[in-house]
Design brief:
The complex is a heterodimer of chains A (266) and B (229). Chain A has 266 residues and is of the alpha+beta class. Chain A has a single domain, classed as Aminohydrolase, N-terminal nucleophile (Ntn) domain (Glutamine Phosphoribosylpyrophosphate, subunit 1, domain 1). Helix content of chain A is 38%, strand content 25%. Chain A has helices spanning 6-10, 16-23, 92-113, 119-132, 134-137, 181-191, 198-215, 246-265; strands spanning 45-50, 55-59, 63-65, 68-71, 77-81, 84-90, 143-151, 154-162, 168-171, 174-178, 231-236, 240-243. Chain A has a five-stranded antiparallel sheet with strand order 10-1-2-11-12, covered by helices on one side. Chain B has one domain: Aminohydrolase, N-terminal nucleophile (Ntn) domain (Glutamine Phosphoribosylpyrophosphate, subunit 1, domain 1). Chain B has helices at residues 10-27, 69-89, 97-114, 159-165, 176-191, 220-228; strands spanning 31-36, 39-45, 54-58, 61-67, 121-127, 136-140, 146-149, 152-155, 200-206, 215-218. A five-stranded antiparallel sheet of chain B has the order 8-1-2-9-10. In chain B, strand 1 and strand 2 form a beta hairpin. Classes of the chains: A alpha+beta (266), B alpha+beta (229). The A-B interface holds A 1-4, 7-9, 11, 16, 19-20, 23-24, 27, 100-101, 104, 107-108, 111-112, 114 and B 50, 52, 55-57, 74, 77-78, 80-82, 84-85, 87-89, 102-110, 114, 213.
Chain lengths: 266, 229
């Protein structure tokens, strides 16, 4: 009988990854034989913190291969669905694949079940996908995501960090991942405070990323030549995921740089 | 005494199956899918707020069904799996209503001829084109036959009455409010009664939607508003 393959008609799973593994394993990211870590673009700083209304996540746009800059305009922070965001540090190709797969996983569940996963359910699903990638991590191709969002049960939002083995940890104020995360977190310790409004939150995010790019060669700063700004997404229950336009981010970045220039020259 | 060999002609076999499927479908309430100037409206008489007859398959593809719930739910889920896997393996723009309709048609035809009973379902697959000229509406029957329609299409027990009510109407030139009105009136005429908003299930594929997913369910409040002005 032609038409749908029997797996489509008889499956009771609501997971896209399980379906793809059964029907079309060649479409999924697969294991390779050698350590390819030195050939693939990587490097990043991604930060995430709570704001007055929900969550803000931001990431720089640079990707590197060794001492080379591979890309100036990579988007490493993306909406996972209408009410959650994901940012990924690590091997770029795998990271982007994982984001795409994860976005589809959430959309697939929503369509099959007719309802969204809870925020905790989304985080657990991501953890189990990482666990499935463990063999890649052992070959030096690791990806580490940061996931955050809101739902009806947790309107203030939650932030989750992960490790390559699929461990899931809830962060309560702010968190950062990637090669420049130490510098960014240091900045957030001084700049972050509870109840930041959107403008103040964007300014804090730009400053923290600026500090990271100042000291970490794999993290890019705001690029005024190409007009490339860090990606900044906010999430709240009322409006869902909102991307801050890059012109707005660049104008705040200009203020931050002016302030620092004055300080450096005084 | 040995029993006489039991023979049923293929004509009779197919006719019996078709009658059986048609009877099952006629028991259910109808669904109508109509194009409007900026999208496609899917409208069903359905008192249940959770057991849907209308659903999202993919970015620009909607699904409507009548008949036996478990059977069209199987078809809906198969469609979602087909579309998501195709969009992931190739590209989101490579998922088309025509491909999906073919898969549905083959499956329905296969079940009709080889299984012990045919599916008691009728389906509509609607694709929202990038421009109004490329909108597509396909109607699929229990035996896998496909018809493509241009303006509106009705399925279910009262499909003929609904189509007769909407005859000569170019809904693709009208705004959503008017098309919604026509659709509700056609459903109500066929059901011979008035239809309160909570007995209606509606969704649109909206050409002006932001983002790639254009399917949007209309809440009772949104429907009430459409009927008011």
């Amino acid at each position: 009988m032609s038409g749908f393959s029997p797996a489509f008609l008889s499956s009771t799973s609501n997971s896209f990854v399980e379906l793809a593994r059964a029907v079309a394993p060649e479409a999924l990211p697969t294991m390779v034989g050698h350590d390819l870590g030195h050939l693939a673009p990587e490097g990043t700083t991604i930060i995430c913190f709570r704001t007055a209304t929900g969550i803000l996540m931001a990431g720089d746009r640079r990707a590197t291969i060794g001492n080379m800059i591979a890309s100036h305009s990579m988007e490493k922070v993306r909406p996972a669905d209408d009410f959650s965001v994901i940012g990924i540090a690590g091997t770029a190709g795998l990271a982007l694949d994982l984001i795409r797969l994860y976005q589809l996983e959430l959309e697939h569940y929503e369509k099959i079940e007719g309802a969204r996963l809870s925020l905790g359910g989304k985080a657990n699903r991501l953890a189990s996908m990482l666990r499935g990638n463990l063999n890649l991590a052992l070959q030096g191709l690791s990806v580490v995501p940061l996931f955050a969002g809101v739902d009806e049960a947790t309107p203030a939002g939650q932030i989750f960090s992960f490790d390559v083995t699929g461990g899931k940890y809830e962060e309560h104020r702010f968190h950062s991942i990637g090669s420049g995360s130490g510098y960014a977190r240091g900045a957030l310790k001084k700049l972050w405070q509870p109840g930041l409004d959107t403008d103040a939150a964007i300014s804090v995010a730009v400053e923290a990323l600026f500090d990271a790019s100042d000291d970490d060669s794999a993290t890019g700063g705001p690029d005024f030549v190409r007009q490339i700004a860090p990606t900044i997404l906010t999430v709240d229950l009322e409006r869902g995921v909102v991307e801050i336009p890059s012109a707005d981010v660049l104008s705040i970045a200009t203020e931050v740089i002016d302030r620092r220039t004055r300080k450096a020259q005084s | 005494m040995s029993q006489a060999p039991f023979y049923v002609s293929p004509e009779q076999l197919m006719k019996d199956r078709a009658d059986f499927a048609r009877k099952g479908i006629a028991r259910g309430r109808s669904v109508v899918v109509l194009r409007y100037d900026e999208g496609i409206l899917l409208l069903a008489e359905n008192p249940s707020p959770t057991l849907h007859k209308i659903a999202e398959i993919y970015d620009r593809i909607g699904f409507a069904a009548v008949g036996k719930y478990n059977e069209f739910e199987t078809m809906r889920q198969a469609g979602v799996r087909y579309a998501d896997l195709r969009g992931y393996s190739y590209h989101r723009s490579d998922v088309t209503a025509r491909g999906l309709t073919n898969a549905y048609a083959q499956t329905l035809a296969g079940v009709f001829t080889t299984e012990s009973k045919p599916f008691e379902v009728e389906l509509v697959v609607a694709e929202l084109g990038l421009t109004a000229e490329t909108d597509q509406l396909y109607r699929l029957s229990y035996d896998g036959s496909v018809i493509d329609e241009t303006e509106h299409v009705a399925i279910g027990g009262q499909a003929d009455d609904i189509t007769a009510t909407l005859k000569d109407l170019s809904t693709s030139e009208l705004p959503l409010r008017e098309v919604f009105d026509h659709g509700v009136r056609a459903l109500a005429t066929a059901a011979s009664g008035t239809l309160p908003a909570q007995d209606l299930e509606a969704a649109v594929l909206d050409r002006n939607a932001s983002g790639h997913r254009t399917f949007k369910r209309l809440s009772d409040a949104m429907m009430a508003q459409l009927r008011e002005d």
